[in-house]
Specification:
The chain has a single domain, classed as DD-peptidase/beta-lactamase superfamily (Beta-lactamase). The strands form 4 sheets. A 5-stranded antiparallel β-sheet has the order 2-1-11-10-7. The relative contact order is 0.18. Helix 2 runs antiparallel to helix 12. A hairpin with a 5-residue loop joins strand 10 and strand 11. The chain has 12 helices and 11 strands. The protein has 357 residues and is an alpha+beta fold. The chain starts with a helix and ends with a helix.
Length: 357
């Protein structure tokens, strides 16, 4: 996938945001993305009654703060639970908006996926960052395309935050969300500041190595941690409505947001994700395809703030469904959270199988 992304690098330009590292190779092939007319949204149809009933049952039987949204990309209907319009913590789902900002810049000729970029020790973040083992000496020299792949397929926090600085920081991502009219979607301050505040800490770069963050967090009183988590859940700076996310993915699938090549790059990279094997993917029958992004927040005792999976499900007959299942605050065991997400995917697959007959 990394090689594919580099091969599909976008229009050349001298004005590249935050380019860092060695100078690009001038003889690198240049591929021009030609915008194609976006497909017209399908006519709105009445959502299938059985699917509505199934989602209603799932919502009634799950305890916590959550939302479920399903948009039929090609059929035009929507099914949503009562919490689908509530801003819920995205956690790593927000990596999608960094990726979209990058591809939007690519379409404008302001970024290339084969641009060289360096990840230095001061770029390290926390939690899941497998790229950290490669950051030695003067840093890890790589490409923008590889960071995109690492961020989306392995949910690497450092890869994503380095991409975030490359595209212009949180303000650039928020501007893209507004410009593309993606709806009720917030973008937070970046992984380090978001997670440290959620835990009740003030970020210090020493927390990025070893288990520095975990040690600092363990020194807080349970009351301080609970208060910080309450504040985060009540008004998450990275909050988004599941319905807005499902709509954004539906528009992405229809080619309304980016050029054809950039759309393919994003969906193909999401399709190569290795995270969340016990979430949406686990319930799909043979022949289905999925392009998705997971997100998982911090735990405090038996409480979790952010357990999500959002993506595009494609049936064997080609019909597509944009799904967002987001659990923003729950004390249910992880297995029950996984089962809720799986049950939504299973319900969609069951409807599609019946409708195809």
């Amino acid at each position: 996938m990394i090689g594919t992304c580099a091969a599909l690098a976008g229009c050349g330009s001298n004005a590249r945001p935050g380019a860092t590292g060695r100078a690009p190779t001038l003889s690198a092939p240049v591929e021009v993305s030609i915008p194609i007319p976006a497909a017209a949204p399908p006519a709105r149809r009445v959502a299938p009654a059985q699917l509505i009933a199934t989602i209603d049952t799932l919502a009634r039987n799950f305890e916590g703060k959550f939302g479920i949204a399903i948009r039929a990309v090609d059929e035009g209907w929507t099914v949503a639970s009562p919490g689908a319009r509530t801003r819920l913590p995205q956690q790593s789902v927000s990596k999608l908006w960094v990726a979209m900002t990058l591809l939007d810049l690519r379409d404008q000729g302001k970024a290339r996926l084969d641009d060289p970029i360096v990840v230095r020790p001061e770029d390290l973040t926390l939690f899941h960052q497998p790229i950290a083992m490669l950051v030695k000496g003067d840093g890890y020299h790589t490409t923008v395309g590889e960071l995109l792949t690492r961020a989306l397929t392995h949910s690497d926090n450092t890869a994503n935050d380095r991409l975030l600085t490359y595209v212009g920081g949180p303000a650039a991502v928020r501007a893209m969300i507004e410009r593309k009219q993606l709806g009720d979607i917030r973008f937070g301050p970046g992984e380090r500041l978001l997670q440290s505040k959620t835990a009740g800490l003030v970020w210090n770069q020493s927390m990025a190595t070893g288990n520095g963050f975990e040690v600092a967090r363990s020194r807080l009183s349970p009351e301080a941690r609970a208060a910080a988590l309450d504040a985060y859940v009540s008004d998450p700076p990275d909050g988004a409505a599941p319905l807005a996310i499902a709509d954004a993915i539906s528009r992405l699938a229809r080619g309304e947001l980016f050029t054809e090549t950039s759309t393919r790059i994003l969906l193909d990279t999401m399709g190569a994700s290795v995270t969340g094997r016990a979430r949406l993917r686990a319930a799909l029958p043979g022949g289905w395809q999925i392009a998705h992004k997971t997100g998982t927040g911090q735990d405090l005792g038996g409480r979790n703030a952010g357990f999500n999976d959002v993506g595009l499900l494609t049936a064997p007959d080609g019909r597509r469904y944009a799904i967002a299942v987001m659990i923003g605050d729950s004390r249910r065991p992880i297995r029950e959270r996984q089962q809720l997400i799986q049950s939504v995917a299973a319900a969609v697959a069951s409807y599609a199988g019946t409708a195809a007959r």
